[in-house]
């Protein structure tokens, strides 16, 4: 696979930088990570992500996740819910930075560079979200997913963006890094996940509106054609993103909603 030409500066919004000390192996023991994953592992195994690494293996750990390609102004402590959402252009959602939920950064030695983004794939996390009350619930959900994905031996949470039932958009894995959300289709593929199990519950109007704005924004930014905007089940044999969300995607295409046509 191509390693691309290194990270690109995103002119429309900033990707938040975490402290460089976090760009190394998680200091916790693997036993601790695995034990922490058991509580949620059963549910997460029903979710979307399956494989993140390709046959050619990862790049060298010295692959340049350049400081100049990331936001130099990280004032929020990792995990702090006081983090300020990053504004996008008018009409697009604001993005909660990694510092609002992540306790650790990605392990670069396990990651591949994204290269050019050519595809967008939509997911659910296959876990009930009907009881969500606030941003703290969403933050905890993302931390749990990241812990489980790290327990799988992955570099980080598998998705690049997540959307909670309140319509908040959260930054996940940095877009400079290849995700882990569609087996055999992760290269050059931007992963967007909605929190909820849409086999059993319906996505909220707020989440659907945020998804439409985010898909429109990112497809325009990276010049991704509508033919390359798909749900997980349209690429692989899986129930993801759930029947209810799948129907909403079909309806958006029928209405020729921006980003889906």
């Amino acid at each position: 696979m191509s390693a691309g030409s290194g990270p690109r500066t995103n002119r429309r919004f900033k990707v938040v930088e975490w402290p460089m000390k976090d760009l190394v192996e998680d200091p916790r023991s693997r036993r601790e990570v695995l034990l922490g994953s058991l509580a949620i592992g059963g549910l997460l195994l029903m979710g979307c992500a399956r494989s993140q690494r390709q046959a050619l293996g990862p790049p060298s750990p010295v692959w340049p996740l350049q400081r100049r390609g990331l936001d130099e102004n990280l004032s929020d402590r990792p995990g702090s819910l006081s983090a300020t959402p990053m504004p996008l252009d008018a009409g697009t959602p604001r993005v909660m930075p990694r510092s609002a939920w992540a306790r650790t950064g990605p392990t670069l030695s396990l990651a591949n560079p994204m290269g050019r983004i050519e595809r967008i794939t939509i997911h659910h996390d296959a876990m009930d979200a009907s009881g969500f009350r606030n941003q703290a619930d969403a933050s905890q959900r993302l931390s749990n997913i990241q812990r489980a994905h790290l327990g799988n031996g992955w570099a980080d949470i598998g998705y690049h963006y997540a959307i909670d039932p309140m319509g908040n958009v959260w930054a996940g894995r940095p877009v400079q890094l290849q995700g882990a959300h569609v087996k055999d289709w992760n290269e050059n593929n931007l992963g967007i996940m909605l929190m909820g199990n849409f086999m059993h519950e319906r996505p909220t109007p707020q989440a659907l509106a945020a998804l439409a704005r985010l898909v429109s924004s990112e497809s325009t930014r990276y010049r991704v054609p509508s033919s390359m905007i798909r749900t997980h089940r349209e690429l692989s044999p899986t129930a993801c993103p759930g029947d209810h969300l799948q129907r909403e995607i079909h309806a958006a295409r029928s209405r020729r909603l921006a980003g889906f046509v």
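The helical segments are 30-44, 135-151, 205-222, 243-254. Strands lie at 95-96, 119-124, 161-163, 169-171, 189-194, 229-231.
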